[in-house]
Amino acid sequence: MASPRSAQHAGPPDGGWGWMIVVGCFLVTICTRAVTRCISIFFVEFQTYFGQDYARTAWIHSIVDCATMLCAPLGSLISNHVSCQVGIMLGGLLASTGLILSSFATSLEHLYLSLGVLTGLGFALCYSPAIAMVGKYFNKRKALAYGIAMSGSGIGTFILAPVVQLLIEQFSWRGALLILGGFVLNLCVCGALMRPIALKEDCKTAPEFLEQDYAPKAQKRDLKRMSICSPLIKAWSHECLCYCSWKEYNFLLMPGFMVLAVSVLFMAYGCSPLFVYLVPYALSVGVSHHQAAFLMSILGVIDIIGNITFGWLTDRRCLKKHRHFCYLFAVGMDGLCCLFLPVLQNFPLLVPFSFTFGYFDGAYVTLIPVITADVVGTSSLSSALGVVYFLHAIPYLVSPPVAGWLVDTTGSYTASFLLCGFSMIFSSTLLCFANLAKKIKRTHLLSLTNDIGTKPHIWTNGAIAYSVTAELDQKDIEFLAVDSNSYSNR
Predict the structure, then answer these.
(1) Are 294 and 354 in contact (CB under 8 A)?
(2) Ramachandran area for residue 455 (φ above 0: left; ψ -120 to 50: alpha; else beta)
(3) Are 148 and 22 within 8 A, CB to CB?
(4) H, E, C per residue of 354-379
(5) HSE (CB half, 13 Å, CA atoms) of 124?
(6) 3-state SS, residue 81
(7) 453 CB contacts (<8 Å, ≥6 apart)?
(8) Checking DSSP bridges between strand 198-199 and strand 8-9, what pairing results, if any?
(9) d(C-alpha 80, C-alpha 289), whole Å
(10) Which of 10, 11, 229 is nearest to 136 (CA)?
(11) 24, 297, 343, 486: least surrounded by Cβ within 10 Å?
C-alpha cells in the first residue's frame, strides 16, 4: 500500500530504488526460506535429545513450512492495509521470538508451537509482501529482478548449512537456535528498505472513488473533506468496505487464476518430499554420509544458477511472451527427474540428478510471482501471491508424511518418487491445456470477426484495433480487449 505522500508513478520504474528492494527481498529469502531449510539440520539433535521417533520429529519442519504458507494471506493483508514495512518488521520480531523461545524447549510440543507456529507466522508476514514489492518496482526486467531476489534461498542454504552445523557442535542445538534468533532479527532491517511506491493503476483518486454508485450523496460530501488514502474512507460505511474487499480479491474468480491455483497445489505436493528424502534415499543405496550431504549442496548451488539465468532468459524479447511455457516446462522437467530417480542408485548418477532438479527448481520458483503478475496484474499482485503461497501450505504439510508412509508400506522410495513426479507433470500438463484452450477461443473469436458479414464495430487499444461484430456478446468483446492489452504490454 502506497504512502499518501509517495510520488505517483505512471508505471514501475524498473530500477533506481527498485534494486534496493531486490536486495531487501534477497535478504528476506535468506532469513526465511534458507533458515527453514536449515531447520532440518537440527533433526538428529531433536530426535536424540527428546527420544522421539522419526515421524513425530519430522512434524517440526512440516509445521514451519505449513504456517509460513498458510498465513501468507495475512502478510498480504497487513501489507495492503497498513504497510509492507510494518508487516516485515513485525514478522521479523515474531520469527526471532519463536527461535529464541525454542532454545528453551523442554518437549517436542513446545517446539511445535514456538519453532513451528510462531516462527512460521513471522516468516509468513515477511515472505509474500517482500516478493510483491519487487513486482511493483519492475516490469521490463521483472523476471531478472525476481531471479536475483529468489536466489537468496539457495545462497543462504549453501552458506548457513555448514555454519549451523558448526554452531551446533560448538554451542549445542540450544545455543544455535538462540544465535539464529538474533540473525533473523535482520528482517527488521529488510523491512526498513521496503519504501512504498504509488502506481496510477492501484492508487484511486477522489473523483474515481466518489463516482461509485454505492456512496450516497451525503456521504460523498463528507468524503470529499477527508484524505483520499486514509483507511477511514474504506471503513466509513459497510458498502465502501465490501466494495474495497471485492476489488482487492476479485481475481479469485478469474478463470486463469483458478487454473493456476489448482496447478500450484499439485506442483507443491510434488516438490516438497524430494528435499526431505533425497539424503535418506542416497544413504539407502550405499552413498556415504559425506556424499549424500554434498548432493544437497549441489542442489542448493545450482538452484541459484536456475534463479538468475532463467530470470534473465525469460526477460529477453524472444522469450518474454512465452513465460507460461517456460514455467510449465521447468515444472515438467522436475517431474521427469523425480520419475527417473528410483533407477539412479549410485553417487555418479545422483550428481546429474541434483544438477538438473536444482536448476529447474530454481527456474520455476523464480517464475511463480512473474506468472502470477501476468495473470492478475500488478495492482493485485500482493493479495494474489498471498493466496498462491497459502495454497502451498496443505501440500507442504501432508506430502512428506504421505511419502514416508509409502516408504514404510512398500519398503522402498519408488512409489513416493513416482507420485511426486506424476503430480508435477500433471501440474504442468494442466497449465498447458488451459493455455491451448485460451488460444483456441481467441482464434475462434477472431475468425468470427472476419467471417460474419454484418457491420463491424471498431474497438481500439492504442495502436491495436480489432473488428468486433454486433453478434459477439459483451463477454467475448471483453476477452478480446484483455487479451490484446496483455499482448501489447509485452
Answers:
(1) no
(2) beta
(3) yes
(4) HHHHHHHHHHHHHHHHHHHHHHHCCC
(5) 32
(6) helix
(7) none
(8) parallel
(9) 46
(10) 11
(11) 343
* Burial profile 442-455: b = 16 or more Cβ within 10 angstroms, e = fewer: beebbeebeeeeee
Name the one residue in this structure whose C-alpha cell is 517436542.
108
- At 232, list the grid cell: 477511514
**Tell me, what DSSP letter sits at residue 130?**
H
For strand 464-469 and strand 456-461, is the pairing parallel, antiparallel, or unpaired?
antiparallel
Give the E-state strand segments of 323-431 in sequence order: none
Cα 209 to chain centroid distance, Å, stands at: 31
Identify the CA nearest to 300 among candidates 40, 18, 20: 40
Instruction: Measure the CA angle with vertex 5, ends 233 and 251; round to 5°.
Output: 55
Cell numbers for 130, please give them: 517482500
Residue 34: CB atoms within 10 A of its CB come to 21
CA distance 31 to 454: 62
Q: What is the Cα–Cα distance from 191 to 228, expressed in whole angstroms? A: 25
Encoded amino acid at 362, one letter:
G
* Long-range contact set of residues 443-449: C-beta below 8 Å, sequence gap at least 24: 445/472, 445/476, 445/479, 445/480, 446/480, 448/472
Tell me the C-alpha distance between 288 and 254, whole Å. Answer: 50
Neighbours of 66 (CB within 10 A): 21
Q: Which three cell numbers stand for residue 274?
A: 524430494
The per-residue pLDDT string of the chain (490 residues; one tens digit each, 9 = 90 and over) reads 344 444 456 566 777 788 888 899 999 999 998 888 888 778 778 878 888 766 677 778 788 888 888 887 888 788 878 888 889 999 999 999 999 999 998 888 899 999 989 999 999 898 888 888 888 888 777 778 888 888 888 788 778 877 888 888 889 899 999 999 999 999 998 888 888 877 665 554 444 444 444 444 444 444 444 444 444 444 444 444 444 555 666 777 778 888 888 888 898 888 888 877 787 888 888 888 777 777 877 887 888 888 778 777 777 777 777 777 888 888 999 899 999 999 888 888 998 998 889 888 888 887 888 788 877 877 777 778 778 878 887 888 888 778 878 887 888 888 889 999 999 999 989 888 887 887 787 777 777 776 664 444 444 444 333 333 334 444 444 444 444 444 444 4
